[in-house]
Amino acid sequence: KPKNRLPPGPWTLPIIGSLHHLVGALPHRTMMALSRRYGPLMLLRLGEVPAVAVSSAEAVALVMKTNDLTFSSRPSIPTMDILACGGKGIVFAPYGEHWRQMRKVCIMELLSSKQVKRMEGIRAELVGNLIRHIADTASTGAAVNISEKVTRLSNDVVTWAVFGSKFAQQGEYLRTLYDTLALLGGFHLIDFFPSSRLVRWLSNGEHNMKRRYSRVQRIIADIIEGRHEAKEAAGSGACNTNDDDMLDVLLRLQQEDALAFPLTTEIIGTVLFDIVGAATETTGRLLEWVMSELACHPEAMAKAQLEVRKVLGEDHRAVITNSDLAELHYMRMVIKEVLRLHPPTPIILRMNQEDCKIMDYDIPKGTSVYVNIFAVSRDPKHWENPEQFKPERFENSKMDYMGTCSEFTPFGTGRRRCPGIQFSSSLTELTLANFLYHFDWMLPDGATPASFDMSEKFAFTVSRRYDLHLRAIPHVSLKSMPSK
Ligand code: HEM
């Protein structure tokens, strides 16, 4: 067999390969810098694991569109495999019949337009609570920790969508989920030397992950048991499928037993973990970066505020709902520009199920593929002044984030594209419109846009390194804040 022609890559060391280029750095930025030197397809040897980094729109189109089916699996990584739970969920599951079934359930039942609509009143209530809380903080003259508030808001919305209103184990469930996700974002030697028994013996990454994940599954099993008991106590007359949260929907499908792969408690627990994990980290991060960029660009902030206040009227509207938002074109351009500069998941993980040739290079079956969408959406070949925050670049442009344009794919593209776009956009737009309508925002004392720290922290998603604190000055009279 002729020798494979592999993509070029940075110099390697014995045993650790290219790991020394990446350890301790922000991987999306380091990979971007390396790819500018070695090309849009770059071979990395992460310990004993061969990986290819994809860093241009042309390469994204070939990998995620032309060869979508070939590259629609996820790599097998020891700590991640524990969360994949033998392929029972969605996010980490390898491509196959089981994933296809769960993806269909996700799109048709859990994240359907009906479910997003069902959450409308709840979103408005939770955003209203936050606006009131910010107004209270503003009246004391203290700064608001935006990072913390938007993370909690997105947690509350998604847990409500999944489990209904507050449930007894919510605190414990979210704490364990966050611990598990934090562990996933960490560095584990075993992920780079999966065949080494010595590393497995020395490293505690897998052990810790198993312990935390089994706690998550136990809590879910308790919640499900409680739900069954409550249903029995309420009797059959209490069924109203219009009010079903995601757990109710899955339990109904379990009872109907019409799926090719019957839903077990473990499968339900895995899917719900995937959805809560995928939703909370990303939407909170996006809102955090939107407010950071606007605070550093007062002219864009003023323009967005003017638009919201003009479209919604200056008559001190108390509650803004999703149906009010259709005309907020500039605000949507701001969101796109932030997704371009700060995609919450800057690297998408894929794996090819077959040998494949891309740009004349061979990508052997089973290679881990790191699609660096961060590098792609800052590529000077496609973006003028790519490092500059300029929402106006989307003016008169048809470019959206639905995966049609390979140079801008913050939600991925192809078969594995994010199924939560509508869920996420409706919360992002509603929250931002309320923030802009009700308050003027200022950097905390002493900070200027030029000196403001915008450094990043990578842990699977990219957040601010330091929480964002802003001072809120109510724009409308406090009397017109959404009432309790
Ligand atoms: C700003 C918000 C969000 C961003 C930027 C984002 C981004 C992404 C990306 C890049 C992927 C991988 C796509 C690929 O492989 O091509 C993904 C997958 C996924 N996302 Fe999101 N996401 C967001 C919000 C959400 C929300 C709110 C939910 C659920 C309520 C969600 C559920 C999922 C699921 C289940 C997958 C796995 C899909 C699969 O593997 O088939 N995401 N997301």
TrEMBL record:
Keywords: Heme, Iron, Membrane, Metal-binding, Monooxygenase, Oxidoreductase, Signal, Transmembrane, Transmembrane helix. InterPro entries: Cyt_P450, Cyt_P450_CS, Cyt_P450_E_grp-I, Cyt_P450_sf. Heme binds at residue 418. Its cofactor is heme. It comes from the Eukaryota. CDD domains: CYP71-like. GO terms for molecular function: heme binding; iron ion binding; monooxygenase activity; oxidoreductase activity, acting on paired donors, with incorporation or reduction of molecular oxygen. Gene3D superfamilies: Cytochrome P450. Belongs to the cytochrome P450 family. PANTHER family: CYTOCHROME P450 71A9-LIKE ISOFORM X1 (PTHR47955:SF19), CYTOCHROME P450 FAMILY 71 PROTEIN (PTHR47955). This is Cytochrome P450. The lineage of its organism: Eukaryota, Viridiplantae, Streptophyta, Embryophyta, Tracheophyta.
